[in-house]
Amino acid sequence: MTSIHDLATTAELLVVSDFDGTLAGFNPSDIYDVPISEESLSALRTLAHLPHTTVAVLSGRHLGGLKKVCPLEAPVLFAGSHGAETSGEPSGERGPDEQQQCALDALDARLAEIIAWEPRTYLERKPFHRVIHVAPFVDEDPSRAREVLDAALAVEHEGVSMLEGKNIVEFSASEENKGTWIASHRESLGATGVLFLGDDTTDETGFRILREEDLGVKVGEGDTAATERVADRDGVAALLSELAAGRTRWADGLSR
């Protein structure tokens, strides 16, 4: 099984991390005011400036929202909407086409009925996605939150796919997902090793496409295709710091 040492010494490394639940915590009242691990950010900055190393934050947030909340900067790549939008790529900051937009508009009308039925529900509109959130009231009214999620799962959604995550139901008009994004960028970069970290069901597409020379790390509990697991965001920070230190030693050896 691939180790951190293996990744630290691979010829071309791609490091990909989810944002919410992996680098950052949650805030049900304000999705743009979330606690972020400074240790993880520091490790990613170090990695991003090392030779033969590419770092990306791959999130379900739309690209504009991800850039707003995550303080990392280039050369770190930002990929939003589960990979449908990518910073710095001409084809990566486009919006939905006419067919996709029509499907989303039809979906909006159906989801509006859920919002009217339970006004505490938050509907997030992203360029390629619509997301029903029950986090604002799941702790105080878990049974009602479950009813809302079930209602969302029962919505007709022609032209879009649907997935339940942590306190959400997400609808997507894009065929892009974290797995397709990682596979595409592994090929374009010629990566000989990939590290991918994530905590939610939407990250499983990424874990499933990883190869023997890669490492998938699940954050927290739950069934997963990842080969490794850390308990929480502190575990993420420790792992990234270990990789950054090892990769720095490897890079120093290249210049000798």
From TrEMBL:
<comment type="pathway">
    <text>Glycan biosynthesis; trehalose biosynthesis.</text>
</comment>
<dbReference type="InterPro" id="IPR003337">
    <property type="entry name" value="Trehalose_PPase"/>
</dbReference>
<protein>
    <recommendedName>
        <fullName>Trehalose 6-phosphate phosphatase</fullName>
        <ecNumber>3.1.3.12</ecNumber>
    </recommendedName>
</protein>
<keyword id="KW-0460">Magnesium</keyword>
<comment type="function">
    <text>Removes the phosphate from trehalose 6-phosphate to produce free trehalose.</text>
</comment>
<dbReference type="InterPro" id="IPR023214">
    <property type="entry name" value="HAD_sf"/>
</dbReference>
<dbReference type="GO" id="GO:0046872">
    <property type="term" value="F:metal ion binding"/>
</dbReference>
<comment type="similarity">
    <text>Belongs to the trehalose phosphatase family.</text>
</comment>
<dbReference type="Pfam" id="PF02358">
    <property type="entry name" value="Trehalose_PPase"/>
</dbReference>
<keyword id="KW-0378">Hydrolase</keyword>
<dbReference type="InterPro" id="IPR036412">
    <property type="entry name" value="HAD-like_sf"/>
</dbReference>
<keyword id="KW-0479">Metal-binding</keyword>
<dbReference type="GO" id="GO:0004805">
    <property type="term" value="F:trehalose-phosphatase activity"/>
</dbReference>
<dbReference type="GO" id="GO:0005992">
    <property type="term" value="P:trehalose biosynthetic process"/>
</dbReference>
